[in-house]
Structure formats: structure tokens, C-alpha cells
């Protein structure tokens, strides 16, 4: 069982965005979200709901479960 780690969400999304070499501005346009919303998710002050996870995953060209798997790996790595 993996404990919920709110910062794992932030780290996973930030790392994916960096891997794709996307600014928050460009990525927010791809996801259909405000740049400030992306910033709050990445700094851990806002947790995305399922619709937002879906939009973010699609913007990364991932299925939502693939994004959740990345978040789970971040949470597991933080436990170590």
C-alpha cells in the first residue's frame, strides 16, 4: 500500500513537464488550464481533481493511469 503524498503529484507533473521541455505557459495551453493553476499544482498548494489529472495526462500524451503510475512511483521513491 502506498501512502498518499501530495508532493508526489507536484513532483511527477513538474518532472514530466521538464522532460518534455515545456514552459508552464505552453503546457497550460495544451492542458486547457490556467498557468497559475499548473503553478499551484506543481508547488503543492493545489491538488488536481480527476478531470484535471485527465487533462494533464492528455497534454502529456499519456493515458490517465500512466500519469497516476508516475505519481505512485514518486510517492514510493519518497518513502525510501
Give the class-level CATH name: Mainly Alpha
- How many domains, as an integer? 1
Overall, the morphology is globular
CATH topology: 434 Repressor (Amino-terminal Domain)
β-sheet strand percentage: under 5%
- On the 0 to 100 scale, the average pLDDT is 94
Order of helices and strands: HHHHH
The whole-angstrom Rg is 12 Å
* First-residue to last-residue Cα separation: 14 Å
Describe the overall structure.
It is built from 5 helices and no strands. It has a single domain (6-79), classed as Orthogonal Bundle (434 Repressor (Amino-terminal Domain)), CATH 1.10.260.40. The chain is an all-alpha fold and 80 residues long. Helix 1 crosses helix 5. The chain is globular, with a radius of gyration of 12 Å. The longest helix has 16 residues, at 64-79.
Question: How would you briefly describe this protein structure?
Answer:
This protein is mainly α and 80 residues long. The protein has helices at residues 6-19, 24-31, 35-42, 50-59, 64-79.
